[in-house]
Amino acid sequence: FLVCLLTTGTADAGYQYCIVGAGPAGLQLAQLMKAASSSYAVLERSPIAGSFFQSYPRHGKLISINKRWVDSRNTEYAMRHDWNSLLTEGSEPLLFRSYSQELFPPKEAMVAYLNDYWRVNNLNVHFNTTVIDVTRSTDGNGFRVSTRHASGSKKIYKCEVIVMATGLPNLRPGEFPGHEYTVGYDSVSLNRSDFDGKRLLIIGKGNSGFETAQHVYGQTRLTHLVGRQPVRFAWSTHYVGDLRAVNNELLDTYQLKSLDGLFEFDSVNIIKNARGELCLVNDDEEKLKSPDSTWDTDSRQYCYDLAVRATGFVWDSRPTAKLNVTSVFRGKYPRVGNNFESVDAPGIYFAGPGLDFRQSAGGFVHGFRYTARALQRLLRVKHQGERWPAALVDRPLVGLLDALVRRINEGSGTYQMLSFLGDIVLLN
C-alpha cells in the first residue's frame, strides 16, 4: 500500500500563481512574473512549449506577419510591426525574426522560438503535467489543481490564483446531421494526390477552410466552401482573424468561373446516398443554387466525394468544469470580465486569445502579449498591493505633451490593442 502511494501521488506544491498552458500567452505571463519575483508555476501537458504549433496551422504556414526590417527608431516602435516576438522584462529581448526569413513563417519556427524563449528565460514550467480539474480549497483560500504526470503519478498544486492560458486548443465538434461522414481539419490528408479528381466540400469559410482549399484546389474537380455568412475579408474589416490574402487563392477560380464556389447555408445537413456520395441536403433551393455546382435535380442536393469540417476552434472547458465556468459565442470562449477574470468563478483568470473578440489583435501574439502584461499588472495590484507602473512628468505642460506625442508615435501596446488598452493621464 505504501509503494502504491509513492508511485501514484506526491506531496502538494504551493504557488501564488498557477498558469495552465505553456503556449505564447502562458510563457509571456511567466516571464513577467519571474521578472517581478512572483511565486508561479506553469503546468503544461506536453513535453515541449507551444505544442499547439506542432499541429496547426495544418498546412504549415502561419498568418502572423514576420516583418524583419522596420525603421527601428527604438525597440518599442519596432514591436508595433513584430507580430511574433514575446516581451522580455529584465533581460535582453529574444526576437522571432532570427527564426525565419519568411514573411509568413512556418509553424516549426514558432515551436523553436517558444522553446528557446522558455530556456533563455529559465521559466518554471512543469512539462508532461496534465491538469485534470480545478476545485476550490476546502478552507476557501485559493484552489486545488489536480494533475497527472506522463509517468502516471498524480500531484496536487495549491494555488492562490489560477490563470488559464490554454488558448483555443480544441476543434469545434460536429454539430450538424451527418457530421460523422466528414473529416476534421485536424486530420485532413496533406497528400495532394488523395484529392485528384475529387469533388470537395469544405464546411467553414474562415482561414482554416480557405487554407485547406488552397492546398488542394489544383487537384480537385471542384471545391466548394459553405458557411452561415459571407466571407469576411481582413482587408475590409481590418480584423486580422478574418480571411487573409495569403489564404484566398481560391477566390480566383471562383470569380473566373472555374467550377470552384462559395455559398451560404444556415443549417448543414449531410447524407450518404446509394452511390456513396456525400450530399448536402438543400432546405432552401434559392439560397443554395449556384451555376457551378454538381446539382442533383431529383433530390435537390449537392453531392461530393469528400467533406471537410473547418469550423474553427473552441476553448477547453474541462479543467474548470467543476467551477461551472460558462461560455459565450456558441461555446467558443469563456465568459470573462474586463479584468480578465471569470465572471462565474472569481480567482480564475484567462490569458491569450478570446479576450477582445473582433475588436483588435488580442487573438494573436502581437495583441495578447500586451493583455498578458496588463493582467500581470492587475494581479500585482490586487494580490501584492503594488501600484500600477507610472512615469512622473517633471515639466507639467511641455513634459506632458512630449510624453503624449512619444506614446502616439511609438507605443506598441495601444497601437495593436486599439479600443482595448489605453494610457491614463493623472493631473495633480
What Rg, in angstroms, do the CA atoms define? 24 Å
- Number of discrete helical segments: 12
Indicate the percent of residues in helices: 10-25%
Q: What is the top-level CATH class of the largest domain?
A: Alpha Beta
CATH superfamily of the largest domain: FAD/NAD(P)-binding domain
Q: Give the mean pLDDT.
A: 91
CATH architecture of the largest domain: 3-Layer(bba) Sandwich
InterPro entries: Auxin_biosynth/cation_transpt, FAD/NAD-bd_sf
Keywords: Oxidoreductase
GO molecular function: flavin adenine dinucleotide binding; monooxygenase activity
Organism: Macrostomum lignano
Task: Write structural notes for this entry.
- With 428 residues, the protein is an alpha/beta fold.
- It folds into two domains: 2-170 and 314-416, FAD/NAD(P)-binding domain (3-Layer(bba) Sandwich), CATH 3.50.50; 173-309, FAD/NAD(P)-binding domain, CATH 3.50.50.60.
- It contains twelve helices and 20 strands.
- The strands form five sheets. Strands 1, 2, 3, 4, 5, 6 and 20 form a seven-stranded mixed sheet that branches. A five-stranded parallel sheet has the order 8-16-9-10-11. A four-stranded antiparallel sheet has the order 12-13-15-14, with no helix packed on it.
- The radius of gyration is 24 Å and the shape is globular.
- The relative contact order is 0.14.
- Residues 1-8 and 285-300 have low confidence and may be disordered.
Provide key terms for this protein:
globular; seven-stranded mixed β-sheet; five-stranded parallel β-sheet; 428 residues; FAD/NAD(P)-binding domain; disordered N terminus; single chain; 25% helix; alpha/beta
